[in-house]
Structure formats: structure tokens, C-alpha cells
Design brief:
heterodimer, A: mainly alpha, 4 helices, B: 598 residues, alpha+beta, three-stranded antiparallel beta sheet, 14% strand
Chain lengths: 134, 598
């Protein structure tokens, strides 16, 4: 039952990331767009597999672990680069950049909430307890 | 247990939200069928003449008042407030309030109708609710105590400068000042209000005394239709405003306060904005030459030539206040823009040494990575390598690009290319930088102006940035199909975020000037009609439609003390009722540049 819950979360968050990343605030960086597309594809696939196979699915569990691992790595890289961005803006533009830098740190906090928490909880679920039977 | 608690919390939150909504909502009456008939009706009633037709005679007025004001020199000098079951009854009662007004005053004043169409509750005890509970430039406020009611119409609030007065954070003020609003209501009632309310009115005003009635909103009447002829006329009117506010010494009235009829120059005078105003006049002159305008431009350019502190002479000329030891790049960069535009428009070469000196200075301020230093200690002849200020780098790039038309120079071409490389790429070369753009309107105007002088391999990269800049700006533009604009159609085409913040006219102008360049760049790379060309064009036309409606014309200037002094200008915003030269420059320039789209 919990696996299906996480599966639904994965699909929902994949849709949310697609909307935020491609419609609401698209990036001009091709590398970012490619990385986000990979994350969305993996998360969507893992979510669908978890919904279909439920708690006992071995393949869905493996896919879920891979998707969460990639999402977690994506989050960490984003946080590092956002920290660098804040430092760059503050260091380059002084008083003007301070506001933008602070805003970047606020975005970093949102990234932790929107990207970081789901894979942490889900990995904890996948990596504990007995191995699935199917 | 947790489920029950969650349910209870959800219920309480829902009920509180529903109660608040019911308290503040303001159901509006059905609009009048022919509101413009009301003012001739009032005039006839006051003159004891036979009354003309009033199609809305029996329209339900729901007990709400009808307010008829007489405006003279921008101020309401007489007012009648009438109540009645029907609109006809209420209008006649309001007209009675004007009986006895001096006939000469009545003949030279303009009548205005405010038919109250809804009232909503307003808190007098919770300051933020009072401050933010009234829609700027749309709602009036009223109060009641001891059976007496007072009404401050939207015009009264605009004239008093009631808006943008509640400080939420440094440099962020919204809504009304709660203390001042309460004192205003108390003074009018001579009592503490038992109940306060906001109200919205259907408004019409006479275009001239006793003349045709026009619909009104936000202290003005609707703008002309969006046509090439109206755009050209609006640009010309903007030029006339600037010239009429230019003195013999070549200095503009930096600000003109329309309620006070007060011209302000003095300490806060901005040389970049002075130069920007001249550059618009020159662009206008390139379109429609005018000897009187050219004489005015020369006075204003000579003023810039004289603004040269010690250390700003010689081969490298910089512009700054003669008393200031430190000059900024923007004053010199926009002086270069102004002088280069003048040369382009008139082919008069008298300012060529000035142009060459400014070019030398701007080049000397460039860093190896293409960015510019923004401050220069003229006394010590030393650049400030650290301080960064808004706009200056883009202005410098645009100045260099414009000079290339008359003075092709490989050094300038290389400097322009390095500058655009920095502005479009290096400054955004980090993760967060891939999600936003800054105030880069000058950057894309520089790409457009310098296109023929840029390396072919780099043009596409710069064009790609400008397309992204345009997309980012379109996200901030208020579109006609948005809920906010459906509720407040006067906002369509402006750039803004919410109903609580009145859009400012300067960014509408500056972004639109730049969007014309984005459109021109796109046209060089795409077929006309493709989305890359179509979207910027739609964006520009929506914005200039907004600007046409906001340009001050005599027929809509009933709130101005001296309409002739304000004609052709643009207010800073609907709620900040003064004109600054840069607002006129950017708005009129946007209008002028958009002419080629129609």
C-alpha cells in the first residue's frame, strides 16, 4: 500500500517538475533542461511501476531506488550551484546583488523541500525491511 | 484522532475564510445602459431647461448614492450627493446639491458623475486590512457615524496622494496609510467612524465644460484607438511636453506635479535622464524634422556639454555634475546616445568632438571581460573597479552601437561585441542566472542598433538571449484574458504582479522600446508571422495601447490643475500623479518605435 502511495507521489512530483521546469520557470541552460528531463522520466517511470506492482514489486523497487538516487543527486548539484550563484551575485554586484543573492538562497530552501524530501523518505522506505518477492 | 483533528482544523479554516469573504465582498449593480446621458441631464436640470432623455431613469439604485462633482482647475469645487430608489431620483437629488453654484463657475467647470455601484466592508481597527483593503485608483472610501455618511471618491484619494503610503519594508510601500485615512474620515465626520467602507463607482466626466461625457477610470478617460496616426500624434505630443518643460539654459523641469502645478528641478536632477530625454527628441526628429525642436535639442545638448567636472576634459570627455569629484558611466553613456541620435537625425556635425570624447571615455571604462566600470574618480583619474550600478553597462553598449552608424571604427565594434558577450552570457553564467533576466532593455537595443557591426557568428547568440528576454518580459505582462485584467481592464498591457501594486509607466515604456528591438532582431532571423516575430509584436502593441490610454490629454485631464502644462506627458503611475522626464522619454519612445509595426 505504501509503495503505491510513493508511486502516486512520484508521478505527481514528476508532473509538478515538468510544469515548473518547462512552463513556469524554464531555464535557458540546455544542460539543466536535459538533466531535468532525465529526472522527470525516471521519476515518472518509477512512479508508474510502483503503482502497478505495489509493495512486492522487485523491479519497481529497483527503479524507485535509481530514480530517487538520481533525484537526490540532482538536488545536491542544484543546491551547490545555487550556493555558487548567490555568492557570484553578491560578490559581483555588491549591493544590487545582495537582494538577488538572498532570493537565490530562498530558492535553494524551496529546492530542499520540493526536490530533496521525497527521495529521502522514499529511499528510507525502499532500503529497509524485507526484500520484495516479485 | 489525527484524522478528526485535521477535519476540525479544515472546517475552522474554511468557515473563517468564508466569513471573511462574505464580509469584504462588494456585489456590484448592473451598469447603466447610457451613463453619458446623465451629465447633460444634470446641466439641463440646473438650467431649468427641458430635461433630455434619461434611459436609466428607473434603473434600480439599491439605495446607493449618486455623486455629481464640479471640477475646476483640477479640484472638485462643488458636489451634490443624492439618494433614491432609482437612478433618476438619485441623480436629481444629486443635481439639487449643485443648485446655487455660481453660473460662471458652472460654465467653466467640468461635471463628473460617480454612480456608486457597490460597497464593501473596511476594517478601521486592523491597520493592514485598512491599508490593503482598498483597490488603488479604483475604489473610494467612506464612513458613517451618527446617521451621517461621508464619501471620498477615487478622485479625492488620487488628488490627496493617498496611495503607496503603507510601508511594508524599506522601499516597498503599498495601499493607503491607515492612520492618515482614519484621520481623514474622522475630520470629515467630526466623529470617530462607526463603520467604514470602500465603494466602487461607475464614472463619467465631461471632456470639456458642458461638452460630451466620456467614461472615466483611474482619474482619466479612455485613450484613442491604436492606429499609426494616433501613435505618431502621441509621440509628437510627448515631444511637445518635453520641449515645453525645457528652460532657456537647456535644463528640463525634472518633475512636474500635476495636482500642485509645480515644476521641480534642482538637487535630484538626473543627467542620465536628461540625456535620455534628448535622445528621444532626436529620434522623433529623425522621424519628423522640426527646426524648433532641433533648437531645443541643441540647448539641452549644450547643457550636457557644460556638465564637465575637473578631470573630465581632454581627449576623454565624461559628463557629471561640475561639483562632484566622482562621475557615473550612465551620464556619459546616455549623453553619447543623445549626441549620436542628434547627429543621425540632423546630420549636424557640431557635436562630433563631444561624441568622440565620450566614446574614448566609455572605451576607457571597459574591463577585459567586456563589463564596464560604473564610477570614475575624475579628480584622481581613477576607475572604481568594484561598484556596480543598474543599467549603466547596457547604456554604454547602446551608446557605442549608435555611434557606429556615423563613425565606423574597429575598436568600437570590438568593444561592443565584448560588452554584449558579457551582458548576454558572462553575467548569467551560473545556475540561477539561467532562470531570470535583469533590466536588459538597453542590451537588446544595442544588439539591434549594432547588428550590422557584430560578428555574424555572435549575432545568433545575442538574438537568442533577446528572444529569452522577451519571453521573460511577456510572463510579467498583464494580458487581457487574465482574471486580474478581466476585473481591471485598465491594466492590460502593463507589467505587474497584483492588484495591490499599481503598474508604473516607466518600465512599460522602457521594456516596450526594447521589445521593438527584439521584434526587429527576430524579423532578421525568422519569417514574418512565425511565433518568434508574432509574440513580441503582440506584446508591444498591447503595451502601447496601455500607454496611449495613459498619455495625458486635455479631455481626460479633469484632475490636473493646469492641463496644458501636463498635456503629452505621462504620470509615474495612476496613483503617483507627477510626471518625470524619463517616464515621458521611455513611454513616448516606445510609442514612436512601435509605429513601424502598423
Amino acid at each position: 500500500m505504501r509503495a503505491r502511495g510513493y508511486g502516486l507521489c512520484d508521478v505527481g512530483f514528476a508532473a509538478l517538475y515538468a510544469y515548473a521546469g518547462f512552463v513556469l520557470a524554464p531555464s535557458r541552460s540546455t544542460a539543466f533542461v536535459v538533466a531535468l528531463s532525465i529526472v522527470i522520466t525516471l521519476l515518472g517511470a518509477a512512479g508508474a511501476a510502483l503503482v502497478v506492482q505495489g509493495d512486492g514489486g522487485r523491479a519497481s523497487r529497483r527503479l524507485g531506488i535509481v530514480a530517487c538516487g538520481v533525484l537526490l543527486a540532482f538536488t545536491v548539484v542544484c543546491l551547490v550551484l545555487l550556493g555558487c550563484s548567490a555568492a557570484f551575485l553578491y560578490g559581483t554586484y555588491g549591493a544590487i546583488g545582495r537582494g538577488l543573492g538572498a532570493l537565490t538562497l530562498v530558492v535553494a530552501a524551496l529546492v530542499v523541500e520540493l526536490f530533496g524530501l521525497l527521495p529521502l523518505f522514499q529511499l528510507r522506505f525502499h532500503l529497509r525491511g524485507s526484500a520484495p518477492t516479485r | 484522532m489525527i484524522g478528526r483533528l485535521g477535519g476540525a482544523v479544515t472546517l475552522v479554516v474554511g468557515l473563517a475564510a468564508a466569513a471573511t469573504f462574505a464580509w469584504v465582498r462588494m456585489p456590484l449593480s448592473t451598469p447603466l445602459a447610457a451613463p453619458t446621458q446623465s451629465l447633460p441631464y444634470v446641466r439641463a436640470s440646473l438650467a431649468h431647461a427641458s430635461l433630455p432623455t434619461l434611459d436609466d431613469e428607473s434603473t434600480d439604485q439599491r439605495g446607493l448614492p449618486v455623486i455629481v462633482s464640479l471640477f475646476d482647475h483640477g479640484a472638485p469645487v462643488a458636489r451634490g450627493i443624492g439618494h433614491g430608489a432609482t437612478f433618476g431620483e438619485a441623480l436629481r437629488a444629486a443635481a439639487e446639491g449643485l443648485r446655487g453654484v455660481d453660473a460662471a463657475l458652472l460654465a467653466r467647470g467640468r461635471l463628473k458623475l460617480d454612480r456608486v455601484e457597490g460597497e464593501g466592508a473596511l476594517s478601521t481597527t486592523v491597520a493592514p486590512l485598512l491599508a490593503l483593503g482598498v483597490v488603488p485608483a479604483r475604489d473610494g472610501v467612506g464612513a458613517e457615524a451618527g446617521g451621517r455618511e461621508v464619501y471620498f471618491t477615487v478622485d479625492d484619494l488620487l488628488r490627496r496622494g493617498a496611495w503607496d503610503a503603507y510601508t511594508l519594508a524599506p522601499d516597498l510601500s503599498l495601499g493607503m496609510d491607515p492612520g492618515r485615512t482614519l484621520r481623514m474620515l474622522e475630520a470629515a465626520l467630526e466623529h470617530r467612524p462607526a463603520r467604514a467602507f470602500r465603494f466602487r463607482a461607475e464614472e463619467v466626466v465631461e471632456a470639456v465644460p458642458g461638452g460630451t461625457a466620456l467614461s472615466a477610470e483611474c482619474g482619466r478617460t479612455p485613450g484613442p484607438e491604436l492606429t499609426r496616426e494616433h501613435l505618431l500624434a502621441a509621440a509628437e505630443a510627448g515631444g511637445r511636453y518635453l520641449l515645453s518643460h525645457l528652460d532657456d539654459a537647456g535644463q528640463f523641469d525634472y518633475e512636474y506635479y500635476t495636482v500642485e502645478d509645480e515644476r521641480v528641478g534642482g538637487q535630484d536632477y538626473s543627467l542620465p535622464r536628461h540625456a535620455g530625454a534628448v535622445s528621444f527628441l532626436a529620434a522623433l526628429d529623425a522621424h519628423t524634422p522640426d527646426p524648433a525642436r532641433e533648437a531645443g535639442m541643441r540647448r539641452a545638448l549644450d547643457y550636457l556639454v557644460r556638465q564637465r567636472p575637473h578631470g573630465c576634459d581632454g581627449e576623454r570627455i565624461c559628463v557629471g555634475s561640475p561639483d562632484a569629484p566622482v562621475v557615473d558611466l550612465g551620464s556619459s553613456a546616455l549623453s553619447l546616445v543623445a549626441a549620436a541620435e542628434y547627429e543621425r537625425a540632423t546630420s549636424d556635425a557640431r557635436y562630433e568632438p563631444f561624441v568622440q570624447g565620450l566614446v574614448a571615455f566609455v572605451l576607457s571604462m571597459q574591463k577585459p571581460n567586456g563589463e564596464f566600470c560604473h564610477l570614475f574618480d575624475a579628480e584622481r583619474r581613477r576607475r572604481d573597479e568594484e561598484t556596480q550600478l543598474l543599467y549603466y553597462s547596457g547604456e554604454a553598449a547602446y551608446g557605442l552601437a549608435l555611434t557606429l552608424a556615423k563613425h565606423p571604427d574597429g575598436r568600437v565594434e570590438a568593444a561592443l561585441d565584448r560588452s554584449l558577450g558579457y551582458l548576454t552570457n558572462t553575467q548569467y553564467d551560473h545556475l540561477a542566472g539561467q532562470f531570470y533576466v535583469g533590466e536588459d532593455h538597453w542590451t537588446c537595443m544595442a544588439v539591434d542598433a549594432g547588428w550590422e557591426h557584430l560578428p555574424a557568428a555572435h549575432r545568433v547568440r545575442y538574438a537568442s538571449f533577446c528572444a529569452a528576454f522577451g519571453r521573460f518580459m511577456r510572463k510579467e505582462q498583464l494580458r487581457a484574458d487574465e482574471p486580474l485584467v478581466r476585473a481591471q481592464p485598465q491594466l492590460a498591457g502593463a507589467f505587474g504582479l497584483s492588484a495591490a501594486v499599481t503598474p508604473h509607466n516607466t518600465p512599460v515604456g522602457s521594456r516596450t522600446e526594447s521589445m521593438v528591438s527584439v521584434w526587429r532582431i527576430a524579423k532578421r532571423l525568422h519569417v514574418d508571422g512565425e511565433v518568434e516575430v508574432r509574440d513580441p509584436k503582440a506584446q508591444v502593441l498591447a503595451a502601447v495601447d496601455y500607454l496611449l490610454a495613459h498619455q495625458i490629454r486635455d479631455e481626460g485631464a479633469y484632475l490636473m490643475t493646469a492641463p496644458a502644462s501636463a498635456e503629452g506627458g505621462f504620470l509615474v503611475s495612476d496613483t503617483e500623479r507627477y510626471i518625470r522626464i524619463d517616464v515621458v522619454q521611455h513611454a513616448a519612445s516606445a510609442i514612436l518605435r512601435s509605429v513601424e509595426m502598423l
